[in-house]
């Protein structure tokens, strides 16, 4: 994914598996909504190198903001970031949404 900022062109080469189902050609890293999507996808599905690149580019505070407010995250991402940042899983909107959803019971 090639991304440019107003000050200088930047090329972020994230693993493509992080962006299945998205048209990355239409994404703008300067758009906060697109940036939040990029951050969540990279942290959920990216490689270690992808995550490190995201931290270098966005900074940890921006990543925290995006992940705390992400509507959907994998449980592993929430667990990892909770331990990394020393916060409770309830700090993540995604965790609170999952906890509020009723458990689906299927009778066979």
Short description:
The chain is mostly helical. It has five helices and two strands.
Task: Give an overview in words.
The protein is built from five helices and two strands. By secondary structure, the chain is mainly α. The chain has a domain at 2-71. Strands 1-2 form a two-stranded antiparallel sheet. Strand 1 and strand 2 (9-11) form a beta hairpin. Residues 14-67 form the DUF6922 domain. InterPro entries: DUF6922 (IPR053830). It comes from Spirosoma endophyticum. This is DUF6922 domain-containing protein.
- Regions with pLDDT < 50 over 5+ consecutive residues? 2-10
Cα-based radius of gyration, to the nearest Å: 15 Å
Give me the count of strands: 2
Strand order of the largest sheet: 1-2
Outline, from the CA principal axes?
A: globular
Task: Write the element-wise H/E pattern from the N-terminal end onward.
Answer: EEHHHHH
| Spatial gap, N to C terminus | 46 Å
What features would you highlight for this structure?
two-stranded antiparallel sheet, disordered N terminus, mainly alpha
Topology:
Layout: E1 2-4, E2 9-11, H1 32-45, H2 48-58, H3 60-69, H4 75-85, H5 93-100
Antiparallel strand pairs: 1-2
Helix pairs in contact: 2-3
């Amino acid at each position: 994914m090639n991304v440019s900022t107003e000050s200088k062109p930047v090329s972020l080469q994230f693993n493509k598996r992080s962006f299945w189902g998205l048209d990355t050609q239409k994404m703008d890293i300067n758009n906060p909504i697109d940036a939040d999507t990029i951050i969540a996808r990279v942290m959920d599905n990216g490689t270690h190198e992808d995550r490190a690149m995201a931290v270098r580019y966005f900074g940890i505070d921006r990543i925290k903001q995006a992940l705390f407010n992400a509507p959907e995250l994998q449980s592993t991402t929430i667990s990892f970031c909770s331990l990394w940042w020393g916060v409770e899983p309830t700090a993540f909107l995604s965790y609170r949404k999952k906890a509020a959803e009723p458990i689906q019971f299927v009778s066979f």
